[in-house]
Amino acid sequence: MSVFEIVFWLSMLLPFFFFPTYLTLASQVAITALFAISVDLILGYAGIVTLGHAMFFGLGAYVAGLLSARLGWGEPISGLFIAGAFAGLVGFVASYLIVRVQHMALLMVTLGLGFLTYELANAMTWLTGGTDGLSGVNTWPIFNHFRFDLWGYTAYSYSLVVLLLGFLISRRIVNSSFGLALRGIRENVRRMPAIGSEHRWHLQKVYTISAAMAGVAGALLTQSTNTVALEVLSFQRSADVVVMLILGGTGRLYGAILGSIIFLLVRDQAAGLNPQYWYFWIGLLLMIVVLFLPKGILGGLSRLVRRNG
C-alpha cells in the first residue's frame, strides 16, 4: 500500500475517537462500500450494467437472518461464508442469462431479476415475514467474545475489517491477468475471442464473485442490526449504489468507497434538514459531478494530480 492508502484506511478509524455517536452510520457506510465494490467489479471493470444487484445483497441478508431466526445459528463468521456462497451460487446460475444479452436488454434483465426476487420474498411471508420483515434474528458475539453493542463499536470494527478484506481481494482480482481480460471485454467484447479469450466464462466468473461479495455485504447488515427488512431487495438500493459509483468514479475501487461515504453523509445531513426532500440534494450533487467530473470525484482528483505533476 502507498502512503496515501495507509492514511486513507487509518482515517477510517477516526469515528472511534472523534465521532462515536456516528458509529452506527459509519458501519452502514462500510457495509454499503463493500456492496458498491461488488458492483464496481462488474460495472466498472467488466462493463456489465446492472440495476438489480440488490437481489444478491438481499439474498445474503435473508440467508444470514434465516440461519439465526429459523435454524438457531447466529455465529457471524460462518454466517458470512454461507450467505456469500448462496448469493454466489445464485449469481452463477443467473450469469448464464446475463452473458447472453447486452446494452438495454442487459439492463432490463437485471432489473427484472431484481423485481422477481423482491416480489418472491414479499409473497413468501411464512419464511421472510414479507413487509413486516424477518424477526427473531440474534447474532452471537464474534469469536464468542465481542458482543454487538448498542453504540456500534463492534459492528463498525467488524464491518471495517470485512470491507478491508473485500477491498484487498478485489484489488488482487483487478490487477491480475483476469482483471486485464475483464477490461479488454469492457472496451471491445468482439475482439476478445480473436485473441483466444473465453469472454463469456470470464464474465460469468466475475459476476459470481460480485454476487458473493454483495451477499456478504447483505449478511453484514443483518448481523449488525439483527433485522431483515424487505427493503434489502428493493430497486432503490440497486439504483443508489449505481449513483454512488457515478459520484466516486467507476473502475476505481476507491471510487466505490468514496462514493458511498459521500452519498450516505449527504443523505444523513440532508434528511436531518428536510426528511421529505433530501433526494433533491443528492440529485443536485449528481448533476454537478456528471457535468464537471464525468469520471467521478476520484477521476477528477486523479486528473488534477497528473496535471500538477
Automatic annotation (TrEMBL):
Q: Which domain of life is it from?
A: Bacteria
Which keywords, in A-to-Z order, does the entry hold? Cell membrane, Membrane, Transmembrane, Transmembrane helix
Q: Which GO terms describe its molecular function?
A: branched-chain amino acid transmembrane transporter activity
Alphabetical list of InterPro entries matching this protein: ABC_transp_permease (IPR001851), LivM-like (IPR043428)
* Membrane-topology annotation of the record: Multi-pass membrane protein
Q: List locations, semicolon-separated.
A: Cell membrane
> Which spans are transmembrane here?
6-35, 42-65, 77-99, 106-130, 150-169, 241-266, 278-298
The main place the protein resides is membrane
Q: Which GO terms describe its cellular component?
A: plasma membrane
Q: PANTHER family of this UniProt entry?
A: ABC TRANSPORTER ATP-BINDING PROTEIN, HIGH-AFFINITY BRANCHED-CHAIN AMINO ACID TRANSPORT SYSTEM PERMEASE
Protein name, per record: Branched-chain amino acid ABC transporter permease
